[in-house]
């Protein structure tokens, strides 16, 4: 009395389901649960309906991009800032297959001019997920970029793999050259899926 339990329904699939087929489990009415009280004639069940989420069979892997948990917030910087953490992103693969990534393309904006105010940019796999570039743990991906176009994109050609049902964090660093003026701003972002080139290992 006065306590509760969590019950879970688990499916083990046999490999015969087709791509796109769906499964869902729910309790539609209170009558779907049969219960009795130990010291009384019956027990009252309430709370229905309880609907589980839809599970969809997929033969193709997918990749979900989100802002990393340690991505830096807005702040004031020096015009000659070094190793400026611009963004941390997280890429998560579904359970279907490993995903191989071959290109990362960051969009840039802000009132500063990337072509004249940035000395270089470095992209890295944030192995310890702390949002910082730790040379003992993290891995640079692609070549350091030293040529920029204002309010355009910065592209890194590099191969990395996100394991099925796993996720990786990545980060971007700027080295500024001192040419920026007071109150000028820099920003990097993703707004279209094509900024990341990826494919499934088996699909």
What can you tell me about this protein's structure?
- The protein has 203 residues and is mainly β.
- It is built from one helix and 13 strands.
- The chain has a five-stranded antiparallel beta sheet with strand order 5-6-11-8-9. Strands 7, 10, 12 and 13 form a four-stranded antiparallel beta sheet that branches. A two-stranded antiparallel sheet has the order 1-4.
- The longest helix is centred in the middle third of the chain and has 4 residues, at 114-117.
Key descriptive features of the protein:
5-stranded antiparallel β-sheet; 13 strands; 1 helix; 203 residues; mainly beta
Q: What structural category arises from helix and sheet content?
A: mainly beta
Distance between the termini: 52 Å
| Global Rg | 25 Å
- Largest beta-sheet details: 5 strands, antiparallel
**Strand line-up in the sheet with most strands:** 5-6-11-8-9
Proportion in β-strands: 35-45%
Q: How many DSSP E strands?
A: 13
Point out poorly predicted stretches: none
Number of helices: 1
Task: Return the average pLDDT rounded to an integer.
Answer: 94
Principal-axes geometry comes out as: elongated
| SSE series | EEEEEEEHEEEEEE
Give the helix proportion (percent range): under 10%
Give the helix/strand layout.
Elements: E1 22-23, E2 26-27, E3 50-51, E4 55-56, E5 63-67, E6 84-93, E7 99-109, H1 114-117, E8 118-125, E9 139-140, E10 153-162, E11 167-176, E12 187-189, E13 196-200
Antiparallel strand pairs: 1-4, 2-3, 5-6, 6-11, 7-10, 7-12, 7-13, 8-9, 8-11
């Amino acid at each position: 009395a006065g306590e509760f339990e969590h019950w879970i329904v688990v499916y083990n699939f046999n490999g015969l389901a087709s791509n796109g087929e769906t499964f869902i489990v729910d309790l539609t009415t209170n009558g779907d649960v049969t219960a009795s009280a130990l010291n009384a004639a019956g027990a009252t069940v309430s709370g229905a309906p309880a609907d589980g989420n839809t599970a969809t069979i997929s033969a193709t892997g997918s990749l979900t991009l989100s802002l990393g948990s340690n991505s830096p917030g807005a702040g004031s910087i020096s015009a000659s800032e070094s190793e400026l953490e611009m963004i941390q992103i997280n890429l998560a693969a579904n359970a279907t297959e490993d995903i191989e990534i071959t290109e990362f393309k960051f969009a840039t904006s802000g009132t500063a001019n990337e072509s004249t105010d940035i000395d270089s940019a470095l992209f890295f796999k944030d192995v310890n997920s702390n949002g910082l570039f730790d040379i003992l743990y993290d891995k640079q991906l692609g070549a350091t970029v030293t040529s920029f176009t204002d309010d355009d994109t910065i592209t890194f050609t590099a191969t990395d793999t996100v394991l099925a049902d796993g996720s990786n964090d990545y980060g971007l660093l700027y080295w500024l050259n001192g040419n920026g003026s007071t109150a000028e701003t820099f920003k990097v972002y993703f707004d279209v899926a094509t900024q990341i080139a990826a494919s499934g290992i088996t699909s």
